[in-house]
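Amino acids appear as letters; backbone shape is given numerically. Here is one record.
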Amino acid sequence: MGTYFSEREFEQVEPAENAFRSPIPTQVISNGEFNPIPQTPRQKQVEACIKELADTYGAKLGMDRRQFLRTGCGMAAAFLAMNSVHGKLFDVSEAEAADVAMAQERAGALQGQFVFDVQTHFVRDDYTQEGFLGFLKHGAEIWKTGDPNKITLYNVKFENYVRQIYLNSDTAVALLSGAPFDDKSWEFLTNQAIAEAVKMVNRTAGSTRLLGHAVVTPGQPGWMDEVDRALAERPPASWKMYTIGDPLSAKTMHPFRLDDEQLMYGFYEKIDKAGIRNICIHKGLMPADYEESWAGVWKYQTPWDLLKVAKDWPQLNFIIYHGCFRPWMDAAGAALAHLRRPATSSGLPTSPECRKRQAPRTCMPRWAPVSPARRWSTRFSRRRCWAPGSRVSAPATWCGAPTRYFTARRSGRSRPCAGSRSLKTCGRSMALRLSVRPTAR
């Protein structure tokens, strides 16, 4: 389970440490669960602008490009570059990129900020699926952090989970989750085990440090009975669902639509009455050939069912994990053309340093889903993992097992970036990034 890639697909990607070493990645990064798309024209513009700003401000500070991008000023420059291409989305000033003291002042003001890891996993004590260790072994092999052959299932069990989340990272609160599998031997934790872990951690800490999902499996035998047990015995912080059913099998037995009135609306009514109205939904992370390899079921990973359900249940929060990634973004998504419309110009200002590289600005991707009277958001409130007032939202980060990361291959020869570290995500930086570069057609 290290990656989903075939040998042929491995030839189309390269390690992300070979990509441009930027404070913020300038192209899609994959952990091996999906084929990353090539760098887009706008991402290329952001990368070029970061380089230009780094050369401009770095020279004034007596630094070369690489030295500058390692500083707080370099991080500020990366956000400025994104603002220049996409519109003013981030609160950052050019002074922070030009003045070390200003950058340090901003960083100091953000120390001690609340870190909420919105998706974490560990496996039960009797778990036996060694294939799950592929992610960890890749990381150990690349980072030389130890012998990959010595990594065991202990590394993904409770004791090490507590050590990594609460002792070796800056995480304040974590959300423990699970996943449905048709083969129950792959199941990480039962809902009861999740609830017991939450209770144990919080009792030991003397405060709320861990929240838990209850995994909902629509269409499976007795699924509503399990919902009733969760509400009666161990109310979760929120619900977790996979519309694809089993996320690892193209022969998944129980895919479903969120807007299936006969199957789902009784569940929505029940959780609305109980007051637990946040539903976290896995959608996306498909392989490049999903229309063939996941034929007949891939559409369950798309937003095809969000419009109606969000309109019918405005009091519920549908929190989309992975943003329906793949069918929503690439050409095969033409099958969902009825969900799309051109976005309008944002009219936001740009940095004068990069204005010449500026493409026509939009407030959303060139083709954006239509969601009646709903905002699509990747923002978090300070102490909640959903965007207040947003009925369809997407977590801004995903924190999973340490793994190796890939990007699409770039044309031409990429300069290796030896020793490149991944950015911290929710306080952890144990993974490599991998990047994909477009191959010649």
Observations:
- The CA atoms of residues 133 and 153 lie 7 Å apart.
- The longest helix spans residues 41-60.
